[in-house]
Write a structure and sequence with these properties.
Helices cover 39% and strands 25% of the residues. The chain is α+β, with helices and mostly antiparallel strands and 378 residues long. A hairpin with a 2-residue loop joins strand 10 and strand 11. It is elongated and about 90 Å long.
Length: 378
C-alpha cells in the first residue's frame, strides 16, 4: 500500500495543479513515471536462460538511455518466436517489447489520466525482421521468399534509417516510427532483388494466376444443345405472353440478337480474362524487353505497399520500397541458435505529446548502439 501511495503522489500533486490552472505540458511532465515488468510471452525451451540474459541486457541499455520516465508509465516484456518468426532455421528469434503509456489532461473531468493505448514504443528483434520488412505473399525469386523493406529515410549513427510501419495520421493523432538493422560488420542478412529478377518473378506470378483462372473458367459446365434449345423456346413463349402485341416482334429480335450459347459465353469470358491479364503484364513485359544488362542488375524499388499492378520502378527519393531476398551466405550455422546474428531496432512516438517526444529525444541521444553492435555473434 505504501508503494502504491508513493507511486501516485506525483499524480495527485499534478491534479491539484490542474484544478488551479490550465493543464499543460509542464504539469504532465512533472509526473514521474516508472518501469513495470509485464509477463513474458512464449518464453520456453532449453535455451530460455541464454535468451533471457540477452534480452535483459538490451533492456538495461534501453533503461540507461531513458532512466527516468516523465509523464509516462513504461512497461516491458520478453517474447520468443511469434508471427514474425526467425528467417533462419538454425537461429531462434526473440525480442524485447516496450510500451509507453502517456498521461494526458482530461478537460472534461479536469484530471490527469493515463492513456489506455501505447502509441509510444520500442522493440528490438533478434534474428527476425519484425516490422522492419514484410514477407510478400505468393512472390518468389528462385523459389525463395521475397521481403519488402520500409521506406529509406537517410542515416542514423552510421546506419541506414528506415520509416517504420507505425507512421501515419488517424483520429488519435500522428505517429512516427523509425527502424534500422545492426548486422555483422560488412555483411547483410538480405540482398536486393534486382529489377530483372523482379520483372521475371512478377510476370511468372501473373502467368500462373492467369492459367489458374482460365482453368477454372474452362471447367464451368455448359448445357446440352437440346437443353439450351428448350430454354430458348420457353423464353420466346414468355415474351409472347408478357409483352404487348405491338412490341412482341421487337422484343424477340432483341433477345435473339443478344442470345449466346453457354459455350459462346464461356469463350467470351475466357477472352476477357486473357485480355485483362495481358493488360496487367504489358508494362513489365515491355520494360523487360528493353532493359539493359546494367539496369537489370540494379535494385528493384517499387511504389507503395504492394508489388502488384506494376507500372514502373520507383526510387528512394520518391518514397519507394526496396525488395530483398535472404542472403544464403550470411547466417553462421556453427554458432549457437540463441546467438543474435543481427538486430532490428525499432521505435515510435506520437507527434505533439510531450512525454512521447521526450522519450524519442532521450532514446536517440543516449541509446548505446556500440553496445548493441557488440552483441552480434555473442
Amino acid at each position: 500500500m505504501k508503494k502504491f501511495t508513493l507511486l501516485f503522489l506525483p499524480v495527485l500533486f499534478a491534479n491539484n495543479l490542474f484544478s488551479q490552472a490550465t493543464c499543460n505540458d509542464e504539469i504532465i511532465m512533472a509526473v514521474k513515471g516508472n518501469w513495470t515488468k509485464r509477463p513474458d510471452a512464449n518464453m520456453k525451451g532449453t535455451q530460455t536462460t541464454q535468451i533471457i540474459s540477452r534480452i535483459d541486457k538490451i533492456q538495461q541499455l534501453l533503461q540507461a538511455a531513458y532512466p527516468e520516465p516523465r509523464g509516462i508509465v513504461a512497461k516491458w516484456y520478453r517474447s520468443m518466436g511469434g508471427h514474425y518468426s526467425s528467417i533462419d532455421k538454425n537461429s531462434v528469434s526473440y525480442e524485447l517489447n516496450s510500451m509507453f503509456y502517456t498521461w494526458y489532461c482530461n478537460i472534461h473531468v479536469k484530471k490527469l489520466m493515463l492513456g489506455t493505448e501505447a502509441g509510444t514504443g520500442f522493440n528490438i528483434w533478434a534474428n527476425k525482421f519484425g516490422w522492419f520488412a514484410g514477407k510478400v505473399d505468393n512472390f518468389f525469386v528462385d523459389n525463395k521468399p521475397v521481403y519488402l523493406l520500409t521506406k529509406k529515410l537517410g542515416e542514423f549513427n552510421g546506419y541506414l534509417l528506415y520509416e517504420g510501419e507505425h507512421s501515419g495520421t488517424s483520429n488519435t493523432g500522428t505517429t512516427y516510427s523509425r527502424a534500422f538493422i545492426i548486422p555483422r560488420e560488412g555483411q547483410s542478412p538480405y540482398l536486393p532483388v534486382t529489377k530483372k529478377q523482379y520483372l521475371n518473378a512478377y510476370l511468372n506470378g501473373i502467368e500462373k494466376r492467369m492459367l489458374k483462372q482460365l482453368l477454372i473458367e474452362e471447367k464451368k459446365p455448359v448445357r446440352s444443345d437440346q437443353a439450351e434449345a428448350d430454354d430458348k423456346k420457353k423464353h420466346l413463349e414468355y415474351i409472347e405472353r408478357s409483352t404487348r402485341a405491338d412490341k412482341i416482334e421487337k422484343a424477340k429480335e432483341s433477345y435473339l440478337r443478344n442470345y449466346r450459347k453457354d459455350i459462346q459465353r464461356r469463350e467470351e469470358d475466357l477472352d476477357k480474362l486473357k485480355k485483362m491479364f495481358e493488360k496487367e503484364m504489358k508494362p513489365a513485359r515491355e520494360l523487360l524487353a528493353a532493359i539493359t544488362e546494367e539496369e537489370g542488375l540494379q535494385p528493384a524499388i517499387v511504389e507503395g505497399n504492394y508489388v502488384s499492378g506494376f507500372e514502373k520502378f520507383s526510387t528512394d527519393q520518391a518514397g519507394g520500397r526496396m525488395l530483398v531476398r535472404l542472403n544464403p551466405d550470411y547466417f553462421n550455422s556453427k554458432l549457437p541458435t540463441y546467438v543474435p546474428q543481427f538486430l532490428i531496432v525499432y521505435w515510435r512516438w506520437k507527434k505533439g505529446e510531450k512525454p512521447s517526444e521526450y522519450f524519442k529525444d532521450q532514446l536517440q541521444a543516449n541509446l548505446s548502439i556500440d553496445a548493441l553492435k557488440k552483441m552480434i555473434d555473442k
